[in-house]
Write a structure and sequence with these properties.
There is one protein chain. By secondary structure, the protein is α/β, with parallel strands linked by helices. Helix content is 32%, strand content 16%. It has six helices and six strands; from the N terminus they run βαβαβαβαβαβα. It has helices at 19-28, 46-57, 71-81, 120-124, 144-153, 176-188; strands spanning 3-7, 32-34, 64-69, 91-95, 130-135, 156-160. Helix 5 links the parallel strand 5 and strand 6. It is globular, with a radius of gyration of 15 Å.
Length: 189
C-alpha cells in the first residue's frame, strides 16, 4: 500500500497551510497519508521529533514517500541516516528545507538538529528519488540550501517564485507542484 508521511516544520501543526489540502488530494488518489503532530513545536528537540517519525512510519519500504516542510526536512534526513542498510523509501520531497546550520539558526531552538553534520552518503542509500523545492522569495531559507540538496543528494532542484516559506503567513494553502513531483516519482517506480 502506498503511504505518504508529511512532516510539518517549526511551530507547525498538521492542519495548517497546505498540509490538509495535500492530504485530501493524495487520499483521493488512494494513498494512505499521515501528518503526525510533532512534539514541542515551539522548542523542538531532534530526538523527540525523530521518535515521533519512527513511531508514525513503523516499517519503511519503497511504497513510502516522505514530504517535509522546513524543520520537517532535516527531521526526515536524520531519520534516513538511521535506517538499516537494506531499508529504502520510494521518495523524499523537501519543501523549504535545510541541511546545515545557517545564519537564522546559529544557536537556540534548533541546536539539537545540528549536533553533527548530516551523513549525505548514508542518506542517499535509502532513496533513489529526492526532490527539493524552494521559493526564491523565502525570507528564512536561501536558494543555497536547494543547491546543497542537489549536490549532496542528487535531488531534483525546483525553484519557484511567490511562495515565501510555504507557510500560512505566505497564504500558501495549496502546492500543486508537490503533488506533481510525488506523482512523477511514483510513476517512475
Amino acid at each position: 500500500m502506498k503511504r505518504v508521511v508529511i512532516v510539518h516544520g517549526y511551530k507547525g501543526k498538521p492542519n495548517t497551510n497546505w498540509k490538509p489540502w495535500l492530504k485530501t488530494e493524495l487520499q483521493a488518489e488512494g494513498y494512505t497519508v499521515d501528518v503526525p503532530e510533532m512534539p514541542n513545536t515551539d522548542h523542538p528537540v531532534a530526538e523527540e521529533w525523530h521518535q515521533t517519525l519512527v513511531n508514525t512510519i513503523g516499517n519503511p519500504d519503497v511504497e513510502l514517500y516522505l514530504i517535509g516542510h522546513s524543520l520537517g526536512c532535516i527531521t526526515i534526513l536524520r531519520y534516513l541516516e538511521t535506517l538499516a542498510s537494506n531499508q529504502k523509501v520510494g521518495g523524499v520531497i523537501l519543501v523549504a528545507g535545510f541541511g546545515e546550520r545557517f545564519p537564522k539558526y546559529t544557536s537556540g531552538s534548533h541546536d539539537s538538529f545540528f549536533d553533527h553534520p548530516l551523513d549525505w552518503q548514508e542518506i542517499r542509500k535509502h532513496s533513489d528519488n529526492f526532490v527539493a523545492i524552494h521559493s526564491s522569495d523565502d525570507p528564512a531559507i536561501g536558494l543555497g540550501q536547494l543547491e546543497l540538496f542537489k549536490v549532496n543528494l542528487g535531488a531534483k532542484a525546483v525553484a519557484v517564485q511567490g511562495f515565501g516559506h510555504f507557510g500560512s503567513a505566505d497564504n500558501v494553502y495549496e502546492i500543486p507542484i508537490v503533488k506533481d513531483e510525488l506523482y512523477a516519482i511514483d510513476d517512475h517506480l
